Amino acid sequence: ELAGAMLPVLLGLLVVWATMDLARLGARRGPEARRRASGVALAAGLLVALLPQAVASSRFGRPDHHVAEALSMLLLAGWALRAPARSRGRGAALRFEAAGAAATAFACWMFTGGPLYVALAAGLLALRAIRSPRPALVGSGAPGLLGGAAASALLAAPALRQHGRLLSFQLPSLLQPLLVCGAAGTVALGVAAARRLPRAGPAARAAALAAAVLAAGAALALAWPAAAAELAGGVRGWLLRRDPWLATIDEFQPLFGQGRGPVAALDYFFGAPGIAAPALLVAGGLWSSRRTGGRGRGLALLSAALFGLTLIQSRFGRVFAPFLA
Known about the structure:
By secondary structure, the chain is mainly α. It is built from 15 helices and no strands. It has helices at residues 2-27, 34-50, 52-56, 66-81, 90-110, 114-131, 142-163, 175-196, 202-223, 225-239, 262-270, 272-275, 277-292, 294-312, 317-324. α4 (66-81) runs antiparallel to α5 (90-110).
């Protein structure tokens, strides 16, 4: 019982560490930035340890998956933003893929909605691929995502034997590994688009990638309609709150839809820093982009996406809190 009560606290400490690491990554460019990056990391760690949403999900004796969700998104973000340059060699690329497989498997193991967080990280990797001159497949993130999908399928096997549902957005099943495979395929298609269109700009490559993803998704939906139906049910029932039971739960309500005004809602969930959250996202994103280029823009995009999810459902505020810090 004591170990179970301590687990959220230990995971919360790991969230603080991962937040500091991500802040350092977003602030540091070259050895001359080490001192400033350390200051930014300490400030972010202190903030995330005090924000109401982060504290609520990591209290002693409150075992829940929310703090593990936050940790998994931080690990995925740190992984995606550390994608190695091709010049660093095959060893760095292989280490990167192994780290991605571990982060992906952890995200899907902790939460059946984990593929949503994997998709955010995969989106960054796909953008990186179409902006690279001639990206390599190993080091792009696609093999790591496939490895994570395989590991998550193995981890879901005991639950599958118990409930017997091959595909389910509510329970550990083969749907989660299948969605991660889709994320891996998206990154791989981004690599293919960049290599097949070496003279095209990022916009043309993005259009080619979007067309390929839509075609592959349509083909899969026709070939496996049960998977498409379960995915659509998850989007409607869970993310958009069409499920009658989920629609009655407070944490599934919109951030500004619980009888509080915008300022009061931001203050309630995130404390004083939350009131300035929209401005902080813009200012922090611009500052980090100037200091670290693509890494800063990637961090800003992830933060904005998580804030958007929080507007849809306040439960995502627990995952957004470290990024706000």
